[in-house]
Design goal:
- The protein has 180 residues and is of the alpha+beta class.
- The protein has five helices and eight strands, in the order E-E-H-H-H-E-E-E-H-E-H-E-E.
- It has an eight-stranded mixed β-sheet, with helices on both faces.
- Strand 5, helix 4 and strand 6 form a beta-alpha-beta unit.
- Helix 1 crosses helix 3.
């Protein structure tokens, strides 16, 4: 019997409760076209919850930028079908970016409504926290619409603290102290 093939760093097979297999892996340049194409499948509220404003389309420039993170200050993962990059449908994107001249990083996660509520966001967030800790950062934070209850509940369950943003009504900043 052969041992199971080891996956590269930051790669993980993830089985949804419905049995569907996804591969969580670092984003790659080849993901730009599938991500841009899948954007049309998102509902307006999904887009608003992730980008915090209405956005009609993801431009090729936006997709290119997302799929070329700076490895020194940014980290981005996708949850995709287990097909070659460029062919795989991407169902979720999670990214974090170190805020310049700080020991903080901002996160953002978007899980398609087709696979939301099945534990994928939690697993992606755990990986973002792990990355932030490898960078020896102090805090991981994200701005969440105050009516995005699933994201607020997920953040709270992982130890994030809520802080209201006074200058932006309707937004809640969730912050995780990485030194606790």
């Amino acid at each position: 019997m052969t041992a199971p093939k080891r996956l590269p760093p930051w790669h993980e097979q993830f089985r949804l409760p419905n049995g569907r297999e996804l591969l969580i892996r670092p984003i790659r340049p080849e993901d730009a076209d599938p991500i841009q194409g899948a954007f049309a499948l998102l509902g307006p509220e999904e887009v608003r919850q992730r980008f915090l404003y209405a956005l009609k389309e993801m431009t090729p420039e936006m997709a290119h930028r997302l799929c070329h993170p700076d490895p020194r200050t940014e980290f981005a993962l996708v949850a995709a079908e287990n097909l070659p990059p460029g062919e795989a449908l991407v169902g979720a994107v999670a990214r974090t970016s170190i805020t310049p001249r700080t020991r903080d990083a901002e996160f953002a996660i978007l899980v398609s409504h087709f696979i939301a509520g099945q534990g994928l966001g939690r697993q992606l967030m755990r990986k973002l926290v792990k990355w932030a800790k490898t960078k020896k950062l102090d805090r991981l934070y994200g701005d969440v619409l105050d009516h995005n209850h699933p994201m607020l509940q997920l953040a709270q369950s992982l130890g994030f603290k809520r802080m209201r943003e006074d200058d932006t009504p309707g937004l809640v900043r969730v912050v995780l102290d990485l030194n606790e």
